[in-house]
Amino acid sequence: MKKVLFGWMAVVILMASSCGKSNVTPKPPGGGGGTPPPDPPATVSYLDLAKQTRSFVTNNFLTSNFSYRANTTTNANSCFEWYNVSQIYADAALVAAGDATALPYMNKTFQFMEGFWDKSDLRGGYFASVNLNGTGAGGDKFVDDNGLTGMVYLEAYDITEGADKQAYLNKAKACADWLINSGLWDSTYGGGFWWNTSKPNKPSQSNGVAMQLFARLYTVTGNTEYRDWATKVNNWLRNNMLDSSTGLYIWMIDGTGAGTKHTEKFTYDNAIMIEADILYGKAMNDASYLAKAQAIGNAMNTILWNSAYKGYIFNTDPSQTRVNPAWCGWGTQGMIRLYEQDKNAKWLTFAQNNIDALNKAARNKDTHAYYFFSGFAGDNRSPEIEGVDQAWMQRIQAMMSKYK
Whole-model pTM? Predict the structure, then answer.
């Protein structure tokens, strides 16, 4: 889910086909300084904003196959797995917010997703990319892509009925079963899932979404294999990736031997871990995990929050001063998940302010498009308009509309 390296010599740019960080072409860092823009009107309708984003997606990204092109510039003829499934996630949020018009789009894109599935391997698994018509599946298979996809399908399972409901559950289980049988968990660095089938590193976010999926599937199915895997992943993450000095999870481990720990903290890694702890606590009937999730939330709101602009930073590398709608927007989902558990309004305040900050920074007020990267002040906007960023802004605005 991240495509990044750090510092002036390696700032963020898209690697296209997965939802993780990777080696990239360097760009100079953008500025987030200056005077914060004015606050948006108090009467803003987050559901209207979500619908406006959906309209932009329909008019600029949707194909006749119910796939979604990756972006409107460099990859207009490519289709990426986690981009497509993020749009399903966004549509599921709209349906849950009361807009049933998103349901047929969600279901038809789910059918299109079969083109990504590896049918030559009994273990299956989603490849990273296909052509716009669903042919030519290829690239590595990514743990984070498949884990997130399973979670997306379980949300769709929650809001559908009959054969559709069962189909979503079956495919969520297939994603989890691929993770278990993929061979991407091994004893290197004491355990943990590799990021992808090339095995470059073991990130927090890949393991976090896997933990979410296993915990949720155990709750839904009662299958103890999912419970045991959720526990295994949780133990590895807590023992290897949690920085006790900050209360936040680090980026990844790589390198030979014992491995090098990259200790940068990312907003969306930790938002993922909030949700992972909440789901694990529910699955295990262990109330202490809500307290753990709350502790991550409090640490995020101290370390990963820009108080001047009232929004989440991308990560703790001081050279990275721009924000991204998907990866920074994930912080809003984490805060909403906390509010849904404890009803503490402070989480909603952070969630709402973060949406507003991203709308100031990255939204084109005329087209309703979101730029890939921009400074908090709306400066230094990158030219790319990525499908996944539109999807995540649609999603978090639809989620917020239920409460604000």
Answer: 0.93
